Amino acid sequence: MNTKKNDYILPEMNRERNRSLRSTAAACSRFVMDDAAVNFGRGKKYYIRTYGCQANVRDGETIAGILELMGFENTESTSEADVLIFNTCAIRQAAEDRVFGEIGSLKSVKAKHPGQVICLCGCMAQEEVVVNKIISSYPQVDLVFGTHNLWRLPELLMKVMKEGKRTIEVLSQEGDLIEELPVRRSAGAKGFVHIMYGCDKFCTYCIVPYTRGRERSRRREDILAEIRSLREEGRKEAVLLGQNVNAYGKDLGMEDGFTSLLESAAETGIERIRFYTSHPRDYSATTIDAMRKYPNIMKSLHLPVQSGSDEILKRMNRGYTADSYRKLYDDMRAKIPEITFTTDLIVGFPGETDEQFQATLDLVDYCQFDLAYSFVYSPRAGTPAARMEDSIPAEVKKERLQILNDRLSAIAATRNAAYLGRKVRVLCEGPSKKNAAVYSGYSEENKLVNFTGPEGLEDRIVDVEITETHSFSLDGKAV
Ligand code: SAH
Ligand code: SF4
Ligand code: F3S
């Protein structure tokens, strides 16, 4: 059992850490909503704010689906909402600070709206330090639930709203996989599909294995049914999600489960398939073969490397070397020359020397990433790296990030310049957020494209001729 205090069920990172990594399939059950919950939200409104990765966005869509099944209506206004949900991310301290800032500022909104319920869920809810801080300093938060029990939302919310009692229920063990959860998907032509949950990699800097539990794969039939339903709804792109998609099926006893799932996903006939995130350690060459074989699997690969230094990679527990990463890269480029290749990088890992940072720059020069997400290392309470000695001053880390970003954007600009005058196929998402006079969307290669064209292109796949290129986007016109 989890720790209980005042009826609260609190997270315990120790239990997450010591979980067994046995590769057995998680049991699977189906979601059923209690009759009492069905009309509970009638006439009331909910507001939801989701932070973090696409997996969390997909969870947010499930939460919204549950609330709408309860009769709640969506609102974008915090003051109008009866229930406010903060679906949070714990990956770096800055992400958490933002959430605390926002919840803090809601104290006054809530004062004018008695009965308003504020909920915190997602990855932050799984952290002991966060929940303790909520208990001691954020009385305005009425409900905290974790990533393993979001299907319990109807019951938890009814309890809070009927009894007016603060409720905290965060489990440190995953429980069953729950299928047939309702979903209210975001507008647009793409749809996110979880293929697996959790992560067993335990990279020493990372909080995710603690907040998301062990690796559990959904059943193939459930995944393929979801992709088919996206297609039937007229959606054009399925984005397959997992912290480490290459490990798909291991717990179900499959050999090379991800590639075989990817092929079946392609065979559903949906126009586009993407997948995030791949891990170099589990990478299988058959995945590249499948990408080559099926035109509807997009030719772009996000393969986070984190560092170019073998010593740092070892201390990060990544399970590969810079050379073996280069080999993967060479293999992919050789098999699919036009592939776009993106990555994640961390600078300022505890004790990172100048030479080790230089090794990252060298790797970046070698791989010529189309795009890379770069971060300064952020210590996460309870992870091994947070206990490592770190003598590198914050200033130096910031400088390294700047040097790295300058290098990355120069490379990205060169990669993008090759698109000038070419035609790309863009899934139009609608008017650009920065300039409503142009459309924006992503090409098959996953390039952000802003383009002009006639009315009515939203949610369609459009041929666009590239007329100008930048580091992080391409401009063009529909042809
Ligand atoms: N599962 C994916 C990444 C998930 S988190 C993978 O292993 O590649 C997304 C990115 O956040 C990571 O790739 C890493 O670059 C970054 N990240 C994770 N923990 C971090 C930390 N403590 N500080 C800074 N960046 C971090
Ligand atoms: Fe975190 Fe590593 Fe798992 Fe990615 S693979 S989620 S970085 S522990
Ligand atoms: Fe953040 Fe949790 Fe995703 S920590 S990146 S929301 S898995």
Describe the structure.
The longest helix is centred in the C-terminal third of the chain and has 24 residues, at 394-417. The model has no long low-confidence stretch (mean pLDDT 95). With 479 residues, the protein is α/β, with parallel strands linked by helices. Helix 13 (354-367) runs parallel beside helix 14. The chain has helices spanning 13-17, 35-38, 54-69, 93-111, 128-137, 153-163, 208-212, 220-232, 257-267, 285-293, 310-315, 322-335, 354-367, 394-417; strands spanning 3-5, 8-10, 28-30, 45-50, 73-74, 83-88, 117-122, 143-145, 167-169, 177-179, 190-194, 196-197, 216-217, 237-241, 272-276, 300-302, 340-347, 371-376, 423-431, 439-443, 448-452, 461-469, 474-478. The strands form seven sheets. It has a six-stranded parallel beta sheet with strand order 5-4-6-7-8-9, sandwiched between helices. It is built from 14 helices and 23 strands. The protein is globular, with a radius of gyration of 23 Å.
**How much is the radius of gyration in Å?**
23 Å
Bound ions, cofactors and other small molecules, one mention each? S-adenosyl-L-homocysteine, iron/sulfur cluster, FE3-S4 cluster
Task: Give the proportion of residues in helices.
Answer: 25-40%
What spatial order of strands do you see in the largest sheet? 5-4-6-7-8-9
* Number of DSSP strand runs: 23
**So how many helices?**
14
Most strands sheet: 6 strands, parallel
Instruction: Show unreliable segments.
Output: none
Give the termini separation: 61 Å
Mean pLDDT: 95
C-alpha geometry: globular
Strand fraction? 15-25%
Q: What is the SS-derived class?
A: alpha/beta
